[in-house]
C-alpha cells in the first residue's frame, strides 16, 4: 500500500492528485458494502463511475449509476454510495472547495459505528 492509499472497512481509496483547490481520489468499494451516509461543509464532490454498479443515495433519493455515468454532490448535501452489484465498484471522486480533510465528514449513519 502506498502512502497515498487508505484502507477502510468498505474497501479502499487512493489519492491521485491534490492541491489547495481540489483533491482527486480513486475509490474501490467491495461487493456488499457501502460508505457512511454523510455530508461535507467545505467541499462538493463529482463522481465518475469507472466500473461496477453504484447504488447512490442523495437527499434520501436512491438511484443507480453504471460505468460512464456521473453524480454531482453539492456542499452540505447528504449522500452515500454502496455496491450491491456482483463486482467491485470503482469510481473517481473529484472534490472542489476550500478544505479536503477527512475531518470534514459529518456521518449521519454508518454501518461500522464510526463517528
Describe the secondary-structure layout.
Blueprint: E1 5-8, E2 11-18, E3 22-29, E4 37-39, E5 43-51, E6 53-58, E7 61-66, E8 70-73, E9 79-82, E10 89-97, E11 106-109
Antiparallel strand pairs: 1-2, 2-3, 3-10, 4-11, 5-8, 5-10, 6-7, 6-9
Give a brief outline of the structure:
The two termini are 25 Å apart.
Task: Describe the structure in your own words.
With 115 residues, the protein is mainly β. The chain contains no helices and 11 strands. The protein has a single domain, classed as Sandwich (Jelly Rolls), CATH 2.60.120. The protein has strands at 5-8, 11-18, 22-29, 37-39, 43-51, 53-58, 61-66, 70-73, 79-82, 89-97, 106-109. The strands form 3 sheets. The chain has a 6-stranded antiparallel β-sheet, with no helix packed on it. The model has no long low-confidence stretch (mean pLDDT 95). Strand 1 and strand 2 form a beta hairpin.
Amino acid at each position: 500500500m502506498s502512502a497515498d492509499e487508505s484502507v477502510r472497512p468498505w474497501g479502499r481509496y487512493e489519492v491521485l492528485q491534490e492541491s489547495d483547490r481540489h483533491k482527486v481520489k480513486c475509490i474501490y468499494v467491495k461487493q456488499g458494502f457501502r460508505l457512511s451516509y454523510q455530508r461535507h461543509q467545505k467541499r462538493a464532490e463529482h463522481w465518475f463511475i469507472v466500473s461496477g454498479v453504484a447504488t447512490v443515495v442523495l437527499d434520501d433519493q436512491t438511484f443507480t449509476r453504471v460505468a460512464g455515468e456521473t453524480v454531482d454532490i453539492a456542499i452540505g448535501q447528504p449522500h452515500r454510495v454502496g455496491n450491491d452489484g456482483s463486482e467491485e465498484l470503482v469510481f473517481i471522486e473529484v472534490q472542489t472547495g476550500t478544505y479536503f480533510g477527512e475531518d470534514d465528514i459529518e456521518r449521519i449513519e454508518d454501518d461500522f459505528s464510526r463517528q
